[in-house]
């Protein structure tokens, strides 16, 4: 009898302990925030679309795809998707990547005529054994997947390109928000949306999509579709993305570097600062003339950013802040 009572008592205690540990785990999950962050002011509208997915219990992957599609569709945004500024020869060519925290990723580069390269990148990830499709092959794949072909060059973007041709003697330029005539979104400037999200299960994902540098050479590919350069995500550590002169980001494997610095214990902001410093150290002269910005989110949902020049901002959306836009600290 005594044994039976002891057994019943310890079973009841065990059940209570289990319930308690389950409660502690659930509370920890709840405390770690659902959050989405993205580059530039147009990230605010994109974050809202991503937040609708996250707050309904959706995955970080679905959230970043839904978010990135907003600026891709926006005709007033000349640096992403439809209405993006064309290359030197007048062709709109788009770069995008998407990555899940478990290491799955997909990307497209120099893709023409398809308004939502981020969704094509996701199909590359999910429907092919490959990571990156480019140019004519990427277009063929998109059409086979049912995406429709359209003219992405709008009359406004074409006009801006014609104006540029008058003054630029057909020379591609590198962007910089430091020059007063090259405000973000201005004709000589270029910005990318990089978006990072953490969902209710603590999973991370990121997306990055752009029309690349305005007036670039035909065939030029930037950092955005290069996994490890414009985007990198690892559920064990965190996620990072970049904007600015893609050539510098590729040279330094920028987003991978930021994630690896976080793995070594740095905060997201500190990791972004170190990656920016690395670019400046390697090329001090050109670093003063160009813009590069990194944005990071760690697995606990903490966000941070850093840029070479003033002017880089990032949008944050979580349960407390819906439309926040924060200025990133800068080296110069
Ligand atoms: N990083 C993009 C590229 O180099 C452009 C930008 O973000 O301004 O294609």
Would you write up a description of this structure?
The protein has 332 residues and is an alpha+beta fold. It starts with a helix and ends in a 5-residue tail after the last strand. It has one domain: (Glycosyl)asparaginase (Glutamine Phosphoribosylpyrophosphate, subunit 1, domain 1), CATH 3.60.20. Helix 2 packs antiparallel against helix 3 (60-73) and helix 8 (254-263) crosses helix 9 (268-282). Residues 183-188 have low confidence and may be disordered. The chain contains 10 helices and 12 strands. The longest helix has 30 residues, at 2-31. The relative contact order is 0.15. The strands form 2 sheets. An 8-stranded mixed β-sheet has the order 4-3-2-6-5-1-11-12. The chain has a 4-stranded antiparallel β-sheet with strand order 7-8-9-10. A hairpin with a 5-residue loop joins strand 5 (193-198) and strand 6. The chain has helices at 2-31, 43-55, 60-73, 117-127, 135-144, 155-168, 246-251, 254-263, 268-282, 284-287; strands at 35-39, 94-100, 105-111, 132-134, 193-198, 204-210, 231-234, 238-244, 292-298, 303-307, 313-318, 324-327. The site of aspartic acid has 14 residues, from strand 8.
């Amino acid at each position: 009898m005594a044994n039976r009572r002891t057994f019943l008592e310890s079973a009841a205690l065990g059940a209570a302990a289990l319930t308690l540990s389950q409660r502690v785990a659930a509370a920890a999950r709840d405390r770690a925030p659902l959050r989405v962050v993205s580059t530039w002011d147009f990230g605010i509208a994109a974050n809202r679309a991503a937040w609708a997915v996250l707050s309904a219990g959706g995955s970080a992957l679905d959230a970043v795809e839904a978010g990135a599609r907003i600026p891709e569709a926006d005709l007033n945004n000349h640096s992403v998707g439809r209405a993006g500024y064309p290359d030197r020869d007048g062709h709109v060519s788009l770069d995008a990547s998407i990555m899940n925290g478990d290491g799955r990723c997909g990307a497209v580069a120099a893709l023409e005529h398809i308004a939502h390269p981020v969704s094509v990148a996701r199909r590359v990830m999910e429907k092919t054994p490959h990571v990156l499709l480019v140019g004519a092959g990427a277009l063929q794949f998109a059409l086979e997947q049912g995406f429709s072909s359209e003219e992405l060059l709008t009359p406004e973007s074409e006009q801006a390109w014609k104006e540029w041709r008058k003054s630029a003697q057909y020379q591609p330029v590198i962007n910089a928000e430091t020059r007063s005539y090259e405000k973000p979104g201005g004709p000589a400037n270029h910005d990318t949306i990089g978006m990072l999200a953490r969902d209710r299960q603590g999973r991370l994902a990121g997306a990055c999509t752009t029309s690349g540098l305005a007036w670039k050479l035909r065939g030029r590919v930037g950092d955005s579709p290069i996994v490890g350069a414009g985007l990198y995500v690892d559920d064990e550590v965190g996620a990072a993305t970049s904007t600015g002169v893609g050539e510098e980001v590729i040279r330094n494997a920028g987003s991978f570097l930021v994630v690896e610095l976080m793995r070594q214990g740095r905060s997201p902001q500190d990791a972004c600062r170190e990656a920016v410093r690395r670019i400046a150290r390697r090329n001090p002269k050109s670093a003063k003339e160009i813009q590069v910005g990194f944005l990071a989110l760690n697995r606990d949902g903490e966000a941070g950013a850093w840029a070479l020049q003033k002017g880089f901002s990032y949008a944050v959306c979580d349960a407390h802040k819906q439309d926040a836009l924060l200025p990133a600290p800068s080296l110069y």
